Fold this protein.
Amino acid sequence: MESNQSSPSPLSETHFVASLDETPLQATDSVAEDSKPSNLYIDAWRDARRRPLFWISGVFIVLVIVVSVFPGLFTQIDPRLCDLGLSNNGASAAHILGTTKQGCDVYARIIFGTSTSLTVGIVATVINTSIGVIFGALGGFFGRWVDAILSRIGDIFFAIPYFLAAVVIMSVFVQYRNVFVIALAIGAFSWPGTARILRGQVLSVKNADYVTSATALGVGRLTILWRHVLPNSIAPVIVVTTIGLAGAIVAEATLSFLGVGLPPSVMSWGNDISTAQRDLRNNPMTLVWPSIALTSTVLAFVVMGEVIRDALDPKARARR
Amino acid sequence: MRTFKIASAAGGLVLTAALVLTGCSAPDAGDNGGGNSTAVITVNGSEPQNPLIPTNTNEVGGGKILDSIFAGLVYYDATGAPKNDVAESIETTDSQNYTITLKADQKFSNGEAVTASSFVDAWNYGALLSNEQLSSYFFESIEGFSYDEDSELSGLAVVDDTTFTVKLKQPESDFPLRLGYSAFFPLPAEALADPAAFGENPIGNGPYMLDGEGAWQHDVSLKVIPNPEYTGDRVPQNGGVDFIFYATQDAAYADLQGGNLDVLDAVPDSAFASFEDEFGDRAINQPAAVFQSFTIPQDAPHFAGDEGKLRRAAISMSIDRKQITDVIFEGTRTPATDFTSPVIDGYSDSLKGADVLKFNPDEAKKLWAEADDISPWDGQFQISYNADGGHQGWVEAVSNSIKNTLGIEASGNPYPTFAAIRTEITDRTIKTAFRTGWQADYPALYNFLGPIYATDAGSNDGDYSSAEFDGLLREGAGEPDITAANKLFQQAQEILLKDLPATPLWYANATGAYSQGVSGVQFGWNSVPIYHEITK
Amino acid sequence: MVWYILRRVLQVIPVFLGATLLIYFMVFALPGDPIAALGGDRGLNPAVADAIRSRYHLDEPFIVQYFYYLQGIFTGNLGTTFSGQPVSEILARTLPVTFRLAIIAIVIEAVAGILIGLIAGLRKNGAFDTVSLLFSLVLISMPIFVLAFLAQFVFAIQLGWARTTVSGEAPFSELILPAFVLAFFVVANVIRLTRTSVIENLDADFVRTATAKGLSRPRIIRVHVLRNSLIPVVTLIGTDFGLLIVGATVTEGIFNVPGVGNTLFKAILLSEAPTVVSFVTVFVIVYLISNLLVDILYAFLDPRIRYGK
């Protein structure tokens, strides 16, 4: 982090050491004055784009997004056209992944379910992370009564099991049960976990030398938080967030299993998995296919999370 | 009514329980009748939702325990025929005034004598408004009953220790048939003195009794042992029954597979396809007194008047019941041909107009088009159901069947809980079709018709009203000859087939299986195993 | 430190009030009349329904109901369920069972998660790391009900290594299989987080210093890397509590464990406010205590964190 210290130091004016043009190490120590200004995030991007894993997971994520926006490009079959006569058929030319118990095409349902699952995952994660980061960072950094209040608010939300919240939210909005409502139900009651992890990191980082020196240099407190403390404490949050995104997609399945998920008319991987579970003994493949879709998407996001985390972390960059 | 709580309020998932492994060691006797009369049979159950007071129990979990620890005036044999239990005779000349004589020297398990007052006091307790008993409506036909204020059942009179008389508000010939239902069980004096304590440790006069204080381990199990005071026909052939409370049917099924359970009376839908292969002749799959349907409210848009009749028939004919019962239920449901059940005396599969229950896509389309000429269809057809009861599969299949046949939008509309949908049904704010079902409390045709379709009846959730139907129903209820009465009830159903206040779907079969160690397993008319006959 | 703990204990009061009020409001907001459901498909006589409703104060405004509840708490009465059972009895019966289940699960989670995460972190991008990544991903993307059904089918029914369901007393040995399912449901996070922290700390100044001092590698890993890596992990395990409750609802249903998860879920479906709120109150207290412990553990694990100013 020290290497990113870009605010001009008042000490540099006073020449305690030999000036650059007098030292033999000039070539190695010189500052490239014509290079573009850099900051943490630009550096991270430069680093990430050099890594193959970034591109592999990135392409997959883009693909998943394209599928979710334009499902019609990937299948001609209407996923809602279900014929009980075709119940639990295996793979065939017409139905390349077979059919479900209701006689719907498994492949088409996965394609059309992508957008629901992805939206639930992303929206829930955004809600979770934004509230969690604000509460955790402010609480950990400012401590004292700010911390006490924010942590206790977190406690209130955390003590309420999120499925209870989900039952209530999904029941109250019974006519408007859609992906955003379920994402809200999942995200709004899971952020205290993120907040606490970040707070713990902030607590351990805020006494670091570079924070003390930045404070000594008169850098504003919020600037210190944003530029020095947060980047150094965010790594575990990124890991937990990408896993949390997966968790949200799976949570949607679990809520369906408990009967408080999306209505069955909304196609989603979670709904498909929860329905297929009843048929586990007879037609396990209806469970396996949406699970594979879910696992590979989750994999892409987790790998992406790791890459971003490494890229954001100058120490990890140095290691490679 | 004792409705199927397993499939409704409690949900497939929820209840809690666990196993007590008592006396369930490896079978030491052969399984061909060489049973051991001291062996305890383990059976599945669910935590009773209310204290064990007969008039306050309206669900299966508590019901099957009460049936084993109490003896009513009559009991039902495996075919549903009433047999005298405590009663010596039940006599009437006009179907309105009954004289009931009890067998002499009947006792509760605490030694107290079962007398005419044991019945009359129990019934008065159950009927009194301020006692808030869930099954109080069972006494509504007895003179003096009131829903609005506390009033004594003036129609009941004790003649002597073993005789009492009943006067009904109007003639009802199937009254004696009802008397085996748990609401009509007798109660000992201490029950009325402290109902709360009694509900925790009930004392009955049935073939079994609770195995001492604390036999009921909440959420875990309840154990009953043979009652030495019982002198009726239902003599236990085993050393007791252990009701193990399960949170889910899947857990109970897993325990049967794992050898921790002897008798299971509800196969989870995940095992519908495999249980008959797995258990062979130890699997049970037979029709039961459970009728399932969905109800389209009378005032639903496009479903009233002549247009409504056409649309109701078209919807009914666009459902491929045979395919759905075969595929979704794997043959554990039987397609409906009337509004009652095949196990009930008087059931018919050839009522006039029953064709409307057969899958007929061409006719369905034609009728739908005729209705469109009266007023064009708009919107979509929805069936509401509670998501906590395992209904999603069939609702989706029925919706798809309607959608594929009529080419209209059709879908399921889940409510998260039974309470949520029940409230809307009770308040009449529900505007879509909704799931309905009926499990008979006592084996009689009238029980499937009167409470549901009679004008202003308690469970007439669709607000159906037909003077012609009401008339036939009343006539049948007063007809003392059961065959003649059933004829009238069949004619009444033919009216229902024209109006379709509810769309009959199928009868739920009793499904179950038992372990290798037990024999003599037979299911009663009400889908509950006849526990006292099981040996191990 | 003492002052810090005291202050934290005092903070329990507003959290308690806030959480119970919020939860009471949520249960109150549930659509549907719980009393209407008592009658089953048949429905209930309106007069009887009204009487039951007023017995449970369901006909009063929300805030009045809440005060009745608070009043009950201070007189040691947590209310009764709609079936007339005292809520306190249900708590006393179910809490120890779930507590046992959760403790076993957390131990499995912590041991397996930290061990796998540590090895994966020490050999970053090695074969073990890759396998553990895939393993944890499969666990993450498998809903717990699938995990539980599979475990029950394979280990109890097919192999016979465990009982299919848990019996009434819920002994330790029978809880191991459900506890494993529960632990595997949350272990992936611990693996990933431990790995990340280990990688980070391997490169920290204090590790370099220790290496320069000539300390042995096992000692460096044990004293410097692991101890510092455990901070976020300890937090995470502390916060897994909520997830464990969700997991417990499903696991307890499938393995028939007479614990909190199931009872609570049933109570929610029945809109039984006194039961739900009492359970959640206990959660709040358990959660606050575990948080307090985690915060104290911080100070122990990381000398840089100091409280009490």
